[in-house]
Each structure stands twice: as structure tokens, then as C-alpha cells.
Specification:
By secondary structure, this protein is an alpha+beta fold. Helix content is 30%, strand content 22%. Strand 3 and strand 4 form a beta hairpin. Helix 2 crosses helix 3. The protein is globular.
């Protein structure tokens, strides 16, 4: 297993005994993972598409305050391209900071929909992008019907 993937688990779920175990953590993106963030309706639909296609899903965060879903993916080799529009998926990479929920938190404004695995598995970026595209088509079809 690649060393960067092994570090992902410790970056996402720090094992610092002095800190409050119930407090969210602020973690730098771009080293061991990037985050693809979408609005929650699209994110739930995309997560369903990943499961339907039997993709091994890595960690997924739900921010209930802002109704956003974040898929943790392997870090991009290059910096994410800045977005020109105000809507759609956001790619958070090197230079971004991500708030992650506590390891065992099942309730609250910030929770793991899919918690980090002991293996440090991340969902491949191309799978997440394909699932988001499929979810967007599905949601567009339901609005037309």
C-alpha cells in the first residue's frame, strides 16, 4: 500500500489524546487527500450511484449546516483549476483547509456518511466525477417529469 494512502487515515482522524475527541478537526487538503464538495441533494444521489456501481467508497463528509457533501479523493498531481462559476462541484486541494468530524460522531452538524477505513481507502476521482454527472442527469430528469 502506498505511503500517502497510509498517512490519510492519520491526517483525517488524528489520534491526539489531549484534544476533545468530540470536536471537529481542521485538516489541510492536498497532501494526503483532496475533497470534491457538492450540494447535499446531488451528493446523496452521487453516493447512491457509487454504491449502485459497486465502487469501493472512501470517506464522505456531510455538513448539515450548509447542506454540503464532501467526497475524499486522492490528491491531484496539479492544483485544481479555479472555478469560474458560483455553482457546481468544488475541488479543494493544496492550500485548502477542510473541517472533518470526530471519528465516532453520528449526530451533529458535521458527520461522516462513510467514515475513514483502517486501510485509508479513498474513492478514485474519476469515479466521483462520473457519479456526480450521473446524479445530475438523474436529478434533472426528475425535475422535468
Amino acid at each position: 500500500m502506498n505511503a500517502d494512502v497510509n498517512r490519510t487515515r492519520t491526517a483525517v482522524v488524528p489520534q491526539d489524546p489531549i484534544r476533545n475527541p468530540y470536536a471537529p478537526r481542521l485538516v489541510a487538503a492536498g497532501e494526503t487527500f483532496d475533497v470534491i464538495e457538492v450540494e447535499d441533494r446531488l451528493g446523496f444521489e452521487a453516493l447512491g450511484a457509487l454504491y449502485a456501481h459497486r465502487v469501493a467508497v472512501g470517506p464522505v463528509i456531510s455538513d448539515r449546516r450548509y447542506r454540503r457533501i464532501g467526497f475524499l479523493v486522492p490528491p491531484a498531481a496539479a492544483a485544481p483549476t479555479p472555478r469560474q462559476r458560483a455553482v457546481g462541484p468544488r475541488h479543494h486541494g493544496r492550500g485548502a483547509w477542510i473541517t472533518v468530524p470526530p471519528a465516532d460522531c453520528e449526530d451533529g452538524p458535521l458527520v461522516w456518511l462513510v467514515p475513514p477505513s483502517p486501510e485509508g481507502r479513498l474513492t478514485a476521482l474519476h469515479h466521483v466525477r462520473a457519479a456526480i454527472a450521473e446524479a445530475a442527469r438523474t436529478l434533472a430528469d426528475t425535475r422535468v417529469s
